[in-house]
Amino acid sequence: EADIYQTPRYLVIGTGKKITLECSQTMGHDKMYWYQQDPGMELHLIHYSYGVNSTEKGDLSSESTVSRIRTEHFPLTLESARPSHTSQYLCASSDRVVGELFFGEGSRLTVL
Amino acid sequence: AQSVTQLGSHVSVSEGALVLLRCNYSSSVPPYLFWYVQYPNQGLQLLLKYTSAATLVKGINGFEAEFKKSETSFHLTKPSAHMSDAAEYFCALYTNAGKSTFGDGTTLTVKP
Fold first, then answer.
1. Where does the pLDDT of residue A42 fall: very low under 50, low under 70, confident under 90, or very high at 90 and above?
2. d(CA B87, CA A62)
3. Which residue of B has its CA nearest to A90?
4. Are the Cβ atoms of A101 and B42 closer than 8 angstroms?
5. Which CB contacts under 8 angstroms, 24+ apart, belong to B39-44?
6. Contacts for A53 with CB less than 8 Å, ≥ 6 apart
7. CB distance B42–A106 less than 8 Å?
8. Residue B50, min C-alpha distance to chain A (Å)
9. Residues sharing a CB contact under 8 Å with residue B92, sequence separation 6 or more, in sequence order
10. Is A92 near chain B, with CB under 8 Å?
């Protein structure tokens, strides 16, 4: 039973389209994260948030943007998708103390 | 700076054999350490965590890990591999700086 939800699970779109990947959590966590994971497995942090109206870029540069208007919601948007954006995107949240991460099931994006 | 190194990107064992996945870390402050598992087309889920209590940590599915400060290691073990253990495994470190650092991951293959 997941407490963090991502939609869509799979998305195939054409170049130039705008997309939003949704992420919601019901645990009341202040900290939320977006990771990009390519087939080589490595996880790359692209965005994070420590609370409402707080967003920061992660270690890997990304053309995507995020917003945090509500504690439970942390959507990621690509204004104009390109084939280079094809990847799996994982959303996570964490507690305050020890940093245990809770992941969604991921959104696999394919841009044609 | 903190870092996590997983030795061996691919590990293959026979069913019933010992599983040993290696993780070494570097941190200037006492870390919290985690092992996560990822099954195909899913997000990561927590296997076990070290939070400065007992150095031998037991997790789900029969896995355990031992924190060794002198060796800066947190290796994951399981006495007897099962086919269902085949997955990707990630070691991660968290400090009070607020972000997690992941290793590059290890793919575990279990042969019948």
1. confident
2. 28
3. B43
4. no
5. B39/B87, B39/B88, B40/B87, B41/A105, B41/A106, B41/A108, B42/A105, B42/A106, B43/A6, B43/A90, B43/A92, B43/A103, B43/A104, B43/A105, B43/A106, B44/A43, B44/A90, B44/A92, B44/A101, B44/A103, B44/B90
6. A68, A69
7. yes
8. 9
9. A101, B4, B33, B34, B35, B36, B100, B101, B102, B103
10. yes
What tokens were used for A5?
């939800």
A2 pLDDT above the threshold of 80: no
CB A91 within 8 A of CB A104: yes
Whether A94 has its CB under 8 Å from any CB of chain B: the answer is yes
pLDDT in tens, B4-54: 999 999 999 999 999 999 999 999 888 899 999 999 888 999 999 998 878
Minimal CA separation from B14 to chain A, in Å: 23
The Cα B60–Cα B48 span in angstroms is 7
